[in-house]
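Recall from the previous lesson that a structure prediction takes nothing but the amino acid sequence as input. Here we apply that procedure to Sodium/proline symporter from Tsuneonella dongtanensis. The sequence below is the only information supplied.
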Amino acid sequence: MQTGVLVSLALYFLLMLGIGLYAWRKSTADSEGYLLAGRNLSPGVAALSAGASDMSGWLLLGLPGALYASGLVEAWIGIGLFVGALVNWIVVAPRLRRQTEALGDALTIPEFLGNRFPSHAVALRLTSAVIVVLFFTVYTAAGMVGGGKLFEMAFGGDYMTGIWITASVVLVYTMIGGFLAVSLTDFVQGIIMFGALVLMPLVVMFGEGGSAGGSIAAVPQEGFLSLTQGLTVVGWLSAVTWGLGYFGQPHIIVRFMAIRSVADVPKARWIGMGWMAICLAGAIGVGLAGRAYVERNGLVLGDPETIFILLANALFHPLVTGFLYAALLAAIMSTISSQLLVSSSSLTEDFYRLFLRKSAGEREAVNVGRLCVLLVALAGIAIAADPESEVLGLVAHAWAGFGAAFGPLIVLSLTWQRMTGAGALAGLVTGAAVVIVWVWRRWDAAFMGGPGVYEILPGFVAAWVAIVAVSLLTAPTAPSTEPTPAD
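The prediction returns the following C-alpha cells.
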C-alpha cells in the first residue's frame, strides 16, 4: 500500500520541481517576470491558477467535512463563494488588468493603490503591505499545518517532517521560478484537484464494493439533504457573504494583473467558473456520499474533515490513492506558494525598494524577493510547529480581514473616479479594524444573544461607508501614471 502511494507522490513532487526549473529559465530576469510572469499568462493558466490558489485544502477537507457533519445546508458557503468569484471576474478582473499597467505598471496591489492615490501613496503602500504580510504569514502557517497533518494521518509519520517536506518543495519551485512557476504549478494542481473531485464521489456512489448509490437519502439525520434545515437569516447571511471576500484577496486578484490581455479575461472567466462549479459540486458530493458510505458500512470517523482521506484509503488502488493525496497536497501547496510570493512581492516592492534601496536593480530585486519568500516561509513554519494551535481557525478571520480591508477599496478604486486617497486609507483601516474588533468581542460567535454574524459583513459595509464618506469630504486627486516615489 505505502509503496504505491509513495511512488505517486514522488512523481508529483518531481513534476512540481521540473516546472520550477522551467520557469527559472523562462521568466526570472527582472521583477516583472519574477512577480507577474511578464503579464503574459494564458487564459487557462490564469483561470486555474486563480482557482487553485483560492480553494486550498478547504475544498478537499473543510467543505466535505462540513457537509458530512451537517448536511446540504452547508452548501450555502460554496454558493456564496461561486457568486462572489463570478462578480470578481466580471467587475474587478478587466479593470485591474488595464489600470495596473496604465498607472505606472504596478507589480503589486499596494503599489497600484499608491499610484492610484499619489497624495497618500506612502501611507497606503506601507499600511497595505503590513496587512498583506501579517495575514499571509498566518495563512501560510495554516497550509503547512494541513500538510503536516496529512503526512501524520496518512502515513503515521512525524507531524513536523510533513511540514518540512511540504514547505521544502513549495520553497524550491517558488524561490527559483517565481510567479510563472507558481502559476504553472497551480494550473497542474488545479487539473489534479478537478480529477480527484470528479472521480471520488462517482466511485463512492457507484463503485463496486463501496456503493452508496441511492443511500444518501437514508442518512439518519433529519433534513440532511435540505438547503434550509435549521437555517436562520443571520446564518444564511454569514454563509453567503463569504463571497464578498474575493474582491480583497491579493493572492487571487494578482492573477488578473498577470493575464496576457484584457481581451483574454472573458475566456479565462468561463474556464475558471466552470472549474470552480464542478469542483464545488464534487466536494459537496464527497461530503454527502462519504457520510452515506460511513453509515452504510458501520464505520466511525472521529474528524469529519478527514472523510476525503478515509475514502482515498478505503476504495482505491494505492497508485490512485497516491494521486488523491497529491490532489490534497496540490490544494494546500498551490495556496501556500501564492501567499509566499504575494508576501515577498510586498516586502520587496513596497518596503525594500520603497524605503531601503530606491536604486536597487532588477537582479537585486529578484534576489531579495527570493530571500523574502524564505523568511515568510520560516515564520509560517514557526507558527505551524504547534499542531494544537488555533491557526487553522484563523483562516476564516484572515479571509474576512482581507475581504473587508481591501474589497471595497479595490472595487471603488477601479469604478469610482471621485474616490480620494484619504477615503482609500480610511476604508483600509476601517475594514481591518472592524474585523479585528468583531472577532475580539466574539460577535462572530454570539450576536444579541443569537447566532453570530460572520465578521466580513460588518467589516465590508463599514469600509465601504468610510470610503464614500471621507472621499466626499476631501478633494479628489488625479492618479499618477509614474511609479510612486518614496518621499
